[in-house]
């Protein structure tokens, strides 16, 4: 079956939240279940927003800066921080992490646009949070990480609680961005050995279970997007499927959706075959990144092959075939502003395309 819905993983390189919401709804009139504010402004480079706060805290001192992702030459240098002399994890007073305030302001825009009919009724406002591990693992030396992560997790969860206290639960949703975890699982950060899955899952379970049952919660299963490069190219969906199965089995509540990384050009059955082992049921929406950042570089017919193989693999899973949707591999924060309209149009064109259209087109849209 062709994809029936679209998902946005987060950042969109447009001037502000209102521009993001208006551009998405004008170009994709159907199939959008949740709407991001685009993580514009100081949130545009994901966890750098948090790390810059850490640099200003008296409890930490800076040892230098380094690029955390070897495979991505355009990644910014991140500071390497440690507890300052005489400071302990118990002394840390985290500042206002600011997500709740940002989402409160964005929801006011969302509410106004939904009230005047610009945003369709029933569409939810989507908040994106990094997992607690993401922010601290990118910034702190390994020996201080165990001491710091617990108190930062508490602060981040408190920020989430604050956001959910001010927003109507029947109109919002929460996404956890799961990226650093895949770097550890795949040994992409040069630590010498992969981190076992059973050491990663408990932290993600705490994230999912923190969201009240009346608020949908989803996962962005991410392999990075610095310069549209992954920190490691996944060999298949195996690691993503295994993590989702383990997490959904351990969580006390339903995982409402998951978006999977499918590298541009991977239209082969082997990459998508692990979906046969997916154990989540129809209550979990599934999205696959079949919207390429550079469609002109993708061989003709790739999208049609991907659709065929997704359907075939899901049909063999325990829950059987089901409707599913599309997304980009990450957000659109690293796309040029003038590329964003084209990427949004690609979402719409895939939803409306027949199998023949997908086969005949180069990538997902006709060649320029």
Query: Strand content of the residues, in percent?
Result: 5-15%
CATH architecture assignment name: Alpha-Beta Barrel
- Overall body shape: globular
As a whole number of angstroms, the C-alpha radius of gyration is 20 Å
Q: Please give the alpha-carbon distance between the first and last residues.
A: 27 Å
The tally of strands reads 10
Strand order in the largest sheet: 1-10-9-8-7-6-5-2
* Poorly predicted regions: 363-368
Average pLDDT score:
91
CATH topology-level fold name:
TIM Barrel
**The CATH C-level class name:** Alpha Beta
- Strand count, sense and closure of the main sheet? 8 strands, parallel
In which range does the helix fraction lie?
A: 25-40%
Describe this structure in words.
The chain has 368 residues and is of the alpha/beta class. The protein has one domain: TIM Barrel (Alpha-Beta Barrel), CATH 3.20.20. It is built from twelve helices and ten strands. The protein has an eight-stranded parallel beta sheet with strand order 1-10-9-8-7-6-5-2. Strands 3-4 form a two-stranded antiparallel sheet. Helix 9 links the parallel strand 8 and strand 9. The protein is globular and about 65 Å long. The two termini are 27 Å apart.
Secondary structure layout plus pairing:
Blueprint: E1 5-6, H1 17-27, E2 34-36, H2 48-55, E3 60-66, E4 78-83, H3 99-115, E5 124-130, H4 132-137, H5 145-166, E6 172-178, H6 180-185, H7 197-210, E7 217-221, H8 238-250, E8 257-260, H9 269-272, E9 285-288, H10 302-315, E10 325-326, H11 340-352, H12 355-360
Parallel strand pairs: 1-10, 2-5, 5-6, 6-7, 7-8, 8-9, 9-10
Antiparallel strand pairs: 3-4
């Amino acid at each position: 079956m062709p994809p029936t819905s679209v998902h946005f993983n987060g950042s969109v390189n447009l001037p502000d939240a209102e521009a993001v919401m208006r551009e998405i709804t004008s170009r994709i009139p159907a199939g959008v279940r949740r709407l991001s504010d685009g993580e514009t402004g100081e949130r545009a480079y994901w966890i750098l927003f948090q790390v810059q706060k850490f640099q200003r805290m008296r409890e930490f001192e800076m040892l230098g800066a380094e690029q955390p992702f070897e495979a991505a030459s355009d990644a910014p240098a991140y500071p390497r921080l440690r507890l300052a002399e005489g400071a302990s994890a118990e002394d840390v007073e985290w500042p206002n992490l600011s997500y709740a305030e940002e989402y409160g302001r964005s929801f006011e825009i969302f509410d106004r646009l939904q009230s005047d009919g610009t945003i369709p009724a029933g569409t939810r406002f989507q908040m994106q949070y990094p997992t607690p591990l993401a922010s601290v693992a990118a910034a702190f030396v390994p020996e201080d990480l165990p001491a710091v992560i617990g108190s930062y997790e508490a602060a981040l969860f408190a920020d989430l609680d604050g956001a959910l206290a001010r927003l109507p639960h029947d109109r919002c949703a929460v996404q956890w961005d799961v990226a650093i975890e895949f770097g550890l699982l795949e040994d992409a950060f040069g630590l010498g050995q992969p981190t076992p899955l059973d050491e990663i899952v408990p932290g993600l379970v705490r994230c999912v279970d923190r969201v009240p049952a009346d608020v949908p919660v989803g996962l962005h299963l991410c392999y990075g997007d610095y310069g549209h490069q992954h920190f490691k190219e996944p060999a298949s969906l195996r690691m993503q499927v295994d993590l989702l199965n383990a997490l959904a089995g351990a969580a006390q509540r339903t995982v409402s959706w998951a978006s999977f990384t499918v590298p541009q050009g991977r239209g082969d059955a082997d990459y998508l075959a692990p979906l046969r082992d997916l154990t989540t049921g129809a209550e979990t929406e599934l999205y696959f990144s079949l919207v390429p950042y550079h469609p002109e570089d993708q061989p003709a017919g790739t999208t049609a092959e991907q659709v065929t193989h997704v359907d075939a693999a899901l049909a063999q899973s325990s829950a059987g075939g089901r409707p599913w949707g599309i997304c980009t591999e990450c957000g659109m924060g690293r796309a040029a502003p003038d590329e964003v309209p084209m990427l949004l149009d690609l979402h719409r064109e895939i939803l409306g395309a027949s199998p023949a259209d997908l086969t005949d087109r180069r990538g997902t849209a006709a060649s320029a």
